[in-house]
Amino acid sequence: MVPAHRRGAARVHLDDAVRRHAARPRLRGPTAADAQGRRPDLPQGIGRVSEQGQVTHDDFDWEALRLEAVAARGHAYAPYSSYPVGAAALAEDGRVLTGCNVENAAYGVALCAECGLVSQLHITGGGRLTHFICVDKAGDVLMPCGRCRQLLFENGGPDLLLMTVSGVRRMDEVLPDAFGPDNLA
């Protein structure tokens, strides 16, 4: 038998913290098909897409990517640490991907911003990351934690460019001697 407090509309949901955002308008996320047409509602000028569909690195606009991370940070759920984090990346086909941290009362199951970003990469068609930036609650550049560096390596490879507190670095500089799929062969 189901207890009375677990029946009906009056039941209190454990996920009410997430539901508080239900009134916000939903934006359509970028897809792989959108990148070829250069959707006008995605930031333009972050990177150019060649005729082969690859991102070129000429005149890359790190500030525009940082602003995408700042916007993502605004959706973070960080009631325990009060430390919202946002991340943004560019995929090889021109898609702009974002993520934010989502905390949980069971601290070990909290999600870093990079987790949401990589999920969005795969939901919208897969591919490789080419540029990445992460920001803290002040909008300043933040280094990814070790777990997230491994996640970024898996989805961007050694050539992924990261904006770090020390400037632009390749992934193989940020995570030297990384463990990857080749180690499992």
UniProtKB/TrEMBL annotation:
Region span, Disordered: 20-50
InterPro entries xrefs: CMP_dCMP_dom, Cyt/Deoxycyt_deaminase, Cytidine_deaminase-like
Domain of life: Bacteria
Membership in a protein family: Belongs to the cytidine and deoxycytidylate deaminase family.
Pfam families found in the cross-reference section: dCMP_cyt_deam_1 (PF00383)
Molecular-function annotations in GO: cytidine deaminase activity; zinc ion binding
Protein name per Swiss-Prot or TrEMBL: Cytidine deaminase
PROSITE patterns: CYT_DCMP_DEAMINASES_2
Gene Ontology cellular-component terms listed: cytosol
Domain (CMP/dCMP-type deaminase) ranges: 60-182
GO terms of biological process kind: nucleobase-containing small molecule metabolic process; pyrimidine-containing compound metabolic process
